[in-house]
Description:
The protein is an alpha+beta fold. It has a domain at 71-106. The protein is built from two helices and five strands; from the N terminus they run ααβββββ. The chain has helices at residues 8-22, 48-51; strands at 56-57, 64-65, 87-89, 95-98, 103-105. Strands 3-4-5 form a three-stranded antiparallel beta sheet, with no helix packed on it. β1 (56-57) and β2 (64-65) form a beta hairpin. It starts with 7 loop residues before the first helix and ends with a strand.
Amino acid sequence: MPPKGEPFSKAKAKEAKTKEAKAKPKTKRRPRSKTRKGKSISRKRRTSKEFQTRPKTCDCGTHTYTGTEVTPRGFGRCEECIPEHVILVGRDDKLYRNTGTAWVKV
């Protein structure tokens, strides 16, 4: 005859007792400090220096300008891409003629 085993219900009860013994006791959470309570974390804001000095590209897309020039280059019209002897208005509302290398006031 085979040896008698233990009933299933008793085996489950033993298993539950060993799990309880092995389970970690719950630790108490430390309360938050009073100084941190109510404060929210904000994102870093960009300063005005980060927005400055980004060169813009002219209409043809190959040359850059700052946008503060009084010549037509301030509007994005570079003298290298516009045909020679063309007359355009600058940012100061005066006329400029293209010489191929620079804008000359007319």
